[in-house]
């Protein structure tokens, strides 16, 4: 019997810090689309965002957060590439590394809303199927994309953002249960976000 191609999810993000909203999004997409693996890809320099924390911290928090799931792994592809991070490069690297796999790029509704402004947007659709998951407070706005290459997936609503987690740490509020326990400990051990400005 012919084997179906391997299905690989790609969860890109700044992950500053990674939180349960990211993990639930990846898990739900994996279940719904029968993904064999989800690769979390922390961004190098997210050119549209404020100054992010050093990439090594964001990478290690992502490793800690995903360690318990055998179908999750973390890639250094974006943090090891110099210059700003563009998804077109992430997808080209993934396609080169896994030429026979079907790629599924996972985003939240907010990130997906601006996708037509991303670098080489017209080519993105050729490299991957895009899955935009619902996110509380963010409508999935209409944008100019090929409908056969995009799916919208309703997931359990978790009103968690990295911005809010950073603000809570700065204000001395707990982030227990918003981020995985190991990430709480990592933030504390490395004294992250105490002097953050965003
Ligand atoms: N609570 C959530 N539910 C669904 N998707 C989410 C959620 N949080 C983040 N995402 C999606 O995960 C991806 C990576 O998000 P990112 O690392 O920028 O986190 P963030 O919480 O949006 O960060 P920030 O608050 O700093 O903007 C994006 O596609 C984003 O839309
Ligand atoms: O390629 C682009 O131009 C582009 C512009 C904005 C965001 N992205 C990607 O979208 C993902 C989520 O980004 P962010 O900034 O919401 O953490 C991450 O993988 C980014 O590299 C990509």
Structural commentary:
Strand 2, helix 2 and strand 3 form a beta-alpha-beta unit. Helix 2 packs antiparallel against helix 8 and helix 4 packs parallel to helix 6. The chain has eight helices and six strands, in the order E-H-E-H-E-H-H-E-H-H-E-E-H-H. 37% of the residues are buried. Helices cover 36% and strands 16% of the residues. The chain has one domain: Rossmann fold. The chain has 198 residues and is α/β, with parallel strands linked by helices. A six-stranded parallel β-sheet has the order 3-2-1-4-5-6, with helices on both faces. The structure holds adenosine-5'-triphosphate and nicotinate mononucleotide (NCN). The site of nicotinate mononucleotide has 14 residues, from strand 1 and helix 4.
* CATH architectural category: 3-Layer(aba) Sandwich
Question: What is the CATH class designation?
Answer: Alpha Beta
The small-molecule ligands in this entry are: adenosine-5'-triphosphate, nicotinate mononucleotide
In the CATH hierarchy, the third-tier topology is known as: Rossmann fold
Oligomeric form = single chain
- Structural classification: alpha/beta
Domain module tally:
1
Q: What average pLDDT do the residues reach? A: 94
Q: Helix coverage percent of residues? A: 25-40%
* Stretches with pLDDT under 50, minimum 5 residues: none
Portion in beta strands: 15-25%
Outline type: globular
Distance between the termini: 54 Å
- SSE string: EHEHEHHEHHEEHH
**Largest sheet geometry:** 6 strands, parallel
- Give me the number of helical elements: 8
Rg from C-alpha positions? 16 Å
How are the strands of the largest sheet arranged? 3-2-1-4-5-6
């Amino acid at each position: 019997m012919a084997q179906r191609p391997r299905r690989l999810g790609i969860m890109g993000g700044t992950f500053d810090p990674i939180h349960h909203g990211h993990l639930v999004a990846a898990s739900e997409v994996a279940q719904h689309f029968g993904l064999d693996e989800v690769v979390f890809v922390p961004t190098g320099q997210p050119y549209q965002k404020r100054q992010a924390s050093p990439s090594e911290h964001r990478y290690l928090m992502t490793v800690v957060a995903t360690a318990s799931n055998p179908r999750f792994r973390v890639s250094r592809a974006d943090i090891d590439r110099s210059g700003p991070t563009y998804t077109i490069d992430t997808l080209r690297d993934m396609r080169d590394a896994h030429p026979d796999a079907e790629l599924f790029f996972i985003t939240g509704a907010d990130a997906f809303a601006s996708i037509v402004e991303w670098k080489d947007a017209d080519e993105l659709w050729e490299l991957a199927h895009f899955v935009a998951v619902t996110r509380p407070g963010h409508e999935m706005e209409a944008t100019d994309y090929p409908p056969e290459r995009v799916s919208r997936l309703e997931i359990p609503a978790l009103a968690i953002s990295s911005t809010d987690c950073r603000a809570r740490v700065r204000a001395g509020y707990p982030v227990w249960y918003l981020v995985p326990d190991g990430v709480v400990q990592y933030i504390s051990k490395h004294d992250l976000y105490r002097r953050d400005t965003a």
